[in-house]
Amino acid sequence: MIGVTVTTGTRSEPAVTAVGGSPAPPAESRFGGRALGLLAVLCGAAFLEGVDIAMFSVALPVIRAELGLATGELQWVVSAYILGYGGFMLLGGRAADLLGRRRVFLVAMAVFLAFSGLGGMATESWMLLTARAVTGIAAAFMMPAGLSIITTSFEEGHARTRALLIYAGIGAAGFSIGLVAGGLLTMLGWRWVFFAPVLVTAVLLALAIPLVPREPAPADGGRGGRRRVDVAGAVTITAAFLLLITAVEQSTHASPVVTTVIAAASVGLFAAFVAIERRAPEPLIPLGFLRRTPLLRAYLAAASLAAGFIGFQFIVVLYLQEFRGWSALETSVALLVLGIDAVLAPTLTPRLVARFGLWPVILGGLVAAAASFLLFVPVGPDWTYAAMFPSFLALGLAFTFAYGPLTVAATARVDDADQGLSGGLLYTAFQFGAAIGLAATSAVLMAVEGRGAVEASRIALVVPIAASVIGIGVGVVAVGRRARARG
Description:
CATH topology of the largest domain: Growth Hormone, Chain: A
Keywords: Cell membrane, Membrane, Transmembrane, Transmembrane helix, Transport
Pfam family, one: MFS_1
Number of helices: 17
Structural class: mainly alpha
Subcellular location: Cell membrane
Number of domains: 3
GO cellular component, one term: plasma membrane
Distance between the termini: 29 Å
Radius of gyration: 21 Å
CATH architecture of the largest domain: Up-down Bundle
Largest sheet: none
Transmembrane segments: 36-62, 74-92, 104-123, 129-152, 164-186, 192-211, 231-248, 254-276, 296-320, 326-344, 356-377, 383-404, 425-447, 459-480
Order of helices and strands: HHHHHHHHHHHHHHHHH
């Protein structure tokens, strides 16, 4: 949309005109009837994606035992999904803009369903990792398409902000509830961690077909001329991030020469990506888009939040199950408090944003994340659950306050034709932040595993703590700029 005045957190409903000056199609401004059903389906997809990632974190020790995976291999069960997800997210977001949001959303959901089922039938580690990677690629197309359907179906202002906060809040709740679901399903066998999403996806797909609005597939994004998806750029950036994460993971147990070569290759691919984008007639990421500082702050804060969360979760699950001997179900119940965001994110967070604004609320969430990691530093060999509880509660509050508002901040003041791109960049930031956080945490754990599980856990907490410090720095800058602008 062009000429839209964003009024985040207020009830202002600015006039909307479509690209090129023609009247825009009617936008849904109330949550009733078809609009409510559409929002429910899209929230279900976001919830499913969050649950899918979290369930595997709890099931990792059982998967390790059955398939005989080392710690370095184990993190790739999660990283394979994250790499496919994050690596193709930009392509998925752009494809939604160019090929049609409904088409991309439905096809991606069908692929997600199929490969979740195939993963549950894996008998070798390579089969498992392949299924996870393809499922991640499907999610990379599904999620930005779903987000852009919301941002183009609800009128900018109060209605869209409310829809986005509900959508993001329920998606964040998927991470928390997925921990419990993973524990319950693992009791039946780790393969149910694959099969359960198949059933949920089938129901959502059946509902999405009649509810997701039809649209003509845009041939030019509203800018004239035939447009093509930048596959070369997507492949290059995916390979660059893959090598970067491999370099981080290899840094503690490979020779310095190998690590340096891998890291140098990653840097070279990043440079090649920039060169491709400068010359491509239809770049995956128009470089001018990355000069929008408010959006960059949202992406960086999202990456730091994800890096801290995934790294911390990896540490906690290994500590509870492999050192303390807790079952997957006991671990899941212990982490159930993280699901507080399922209640507070759709209810309390919109009120706080309306009262204080986006970035003050985001900053509060990032500070809560740092508090969570710091509270776990005194972990001991016989820590009671009461001692752990404040850390878990703080992390639940961090997602309550930060995840949804970051989604709004990353889509505000973005034209309809670029909503898929911005959503893709946001989810890319989340996923590669998570991948780097997981790889770095795994690397530290392997480097100090000779010191014992408890001491190794304490030392590895430096990764999520450092990630949270970066996020807080971004939040402080954003709040300071907001205060100066208002002054």
